[in-house]
Write a structure and sequence with these properties.
This protein has 561 residues and is an alpha/beta fold. It is 40% helix and 14% strand. It has 21 helices and 17 strands. The longest helix is centred in the middle third of the chain and has 23 residues.
């Protein structure tokens, strides 16, 4: 037993009631919590034992509905440590606050108004106070809404920020560094967050303003470094001008200049870092995108040092070995001479297997090579999607296409009575999600709804994976990553992770139900080599069937089998 539990004199076989977790330094647990479920208490005990043994990082692999956030809150209370709850985006922060209203919410500066100028045209992100003077936008900087929210977060037993905010605040400002206990939700997104933090991006629009062109594609790295030093930094410096001569009416220029100053500082760092571990991403014409092949060398300095104990949670950790390697837990540097230790705690699914079947029915091979060879591939895929729609009149259907091109092609071939929905950017994506949540008889062809979408109950009863979501090998960073020590494992894990996320968009509680079909026949080949990476709760729900099952409604499949 851990020290915290020993003090409570609790036996290992007992599942405590919520009032067991009442401590003087925290408000009572939320009223919605009527009991702690056995699997949650088992996870809490395992996590606490890991910390007692000296473990630095605990990975909590827990599927949807298992109560990850509650497990984290119970651990936080028994440790009685100031806790920072880190979410992958702002919407998950807001969800956390709804569940735990006593926690303090902190977002980036731009989300808060100034005292003296209208919001949102002016916001706290425009703050220009220095040690010598106050802020032009607030006559009383101490009453700035952002500063108030930040002070409350710093003094609260528990606060929530998003990953991007933590990386920038902890590494540039020093706030929220060396936190006693950090909980990272959706921790499988940490690698991408770190990548976004260290990569160097110059947009086509910015380069046009500076009247310079990005280096030609294919030039040597030395040429790119020379261009940054001799072209970009001088042009950006000349463009900034003297900020002190501009007033509130020039707010857009002031923001651009401040952003440019940050780009200059980042460029100086990139010149030092840009080595064989970095590649140029040529996906966007007219831009310059430089990124590392892996971010493990940056994990210790930019992420892990900001917490003394870490609890990293996700429904799709897949392989803790791969995640630990990708995030640099074993990296040893002059500043960090000892590797971090980690353990894995696994929670089973509490949703009935029959409520969440995943059914493989091969319709067509959606790999590029197969599609190039067979011009009717998309017609075959669309035909089976039409069959599924005919069997489920009035039900909402989400088709995961993995690319905008596939979404457009399949939507154009759809012949059913459902209302077709697709999208081309973040704004229209939100519109598509809104329609799924508020209308009936929708079929959405989506390249990017594998995350951040909760489709509860009648919002969606049928899912379709039309394309196995392999990482794109045409991306130079992905192809270079494949040549690293654990590159093949990384590639497989990324694919499994995306499949789990796709199949998990619909069944969101124990009483919910939905069917997900996998129609890409290439999944059969992938399944043979990757089955061991899929968690047991997912494997239990998976089965292969013949095409006649597509003519059965989701209700029949779930309730009549």
């Amino acid at each position: 037993m851990t020290e915290a539990l020993t003090k409570k004199r609790l036996t290992e076989s007992t599942t405590p009631s919520p009032d067991f977790f009442d401590i003087a330094s925290r408000p009572s647990l939320p009223v919605w919590l009527d009991r702690v479920r056995p699997h949650q208490w088992t996870a809490v005990e395992s996590i606490l034992r890991a910390y007692e043994s000296g473990t630095d990082v605990v990975f909590l692999d827990a599927p949807t509905g298992s109560g990850k956030t509650l497990i984290a809150e119970l651990v936080s209370r028994l440790l009685n440590l100031r806790t920072l709850y880190v979410c992958s985006d702002k919407s998950l922060q807001e969800q956390f606050i709804r569940d735990y209203p006593y926690a303090k919410l902190l977002k980036g500066r731009a989300n808060y108004p100034t005292l003296d100028f209208p919001f949102p045209r002016y916001n706290a992100g425009d703050c220009d106070k220095t040690r010598d003077r106050g802020c032009h936008w607030c006559d009383k900087p101490g009453l700035c809404p952002y500063e108030i929210a930040k002070r409350e977060a710093h003094t609260s037993p528990i606060a929530t920020v998003n990953t991007s905010y933590l990386l920038h605040e902890a590494n540039y400002v020093g706030g929220f560094s060396n936190m006693p206990f950090v909980v990272a939700d959706e921790c499988d997104t940490l690698e991408n967050a770190l990548m976004g933090f260290v990569e160097f991006f110059l947009s086509k629009q910015l380069l046009k303003r500076l009247e310079i062109h990005a280096p030609r594609k294919g030039v040597h790295k030395a040429t790119i470094v020379e261009w940054i030093e001799d072209k970009f930094i001088p042009a950006a410096t000349d463009h900034m001008g003297n900020l002190s001569t501009f007033g509130p009416e020039h707010i857009e220029y002031i923001r651009r200049a401040r952003s440019l100053q940050q780009k200059i500082e980042q460029a100086k760092s990139v010149v030092v870092e840009f080595d064989e571990n970095w590649v140029r991403d040529n996906s966007f014409d007219g831009t310059l995108v430089l990124k590392p092949v892996t971010v493990n060398k940056y994990g210790r300095e930019y992420l892990w040092r900001h917490g003394q104990k870490w609890l990293c949670m996700s429904a799709s950790i897949i392989s803790p070995d791969e995640m630990a390697d990708s995030l640099g837990l074993d990296e040893v540097t002059e500043n960090h001479p000892n590797p971090l230790t980690w353990e894995m705690v696994t929670v089973p699914s509490t949703f009935p297997v029959r409520h969440r079947p995943v059914i493989m029915v091969p319709a067509a091979d959606m790999t590029k090579a197969a599609m190039d060879e067979d011009p009717y591939t998309l017609d075959k895929m669309a035909g089976d999607i039409n069959t599924i729609a005919e069997a489920n009149p009035g039900e909402n259907i989400l088709v995961h296409t993995h690319s905008y091109k596939n979404a457009t092609e399949l939507a154009s071939r759809f012949r059913g009575t459902h209302k077709r929905v697709t999208y081309k950017d973040a704004v229209t994506r939100e519109e598509a999600i809104t329609r799924l949540r508020s209308e009936k008889g929708i079929i959405a062809f989506s390249p990017s709804m594998d995350r951040g979408v909760d489709l509860v109950g009648d919002m969606c009863r049928v899912g379709v994976i039309a394309k196995v979501p392999y990482p794109y090998l045409g991306d130079r960073q992905v192809s270079a990553r494949m040549r690293t020590r654990l590159g093949n494992m990384w590639y497989t894990v990324q694919t499994v992770r995306s499949i789990l996320q796709m199949t998990g968009r619909m069944v969101r509680n124990r009483n919910d139900w939905a069917v997900c079909f996998i129609l890409d026949s290439n999944f059969i080949k992938f399944w043979k080599k990757a089955k061991r990476y899929f968690p047991k709760w997912w494997v239990d729900a998976f089965r292969m069937e013949r095409p006649p099952v597509l003519k059965k409604s989701a209700w029949e499949i779930v309730h009549d089998d």
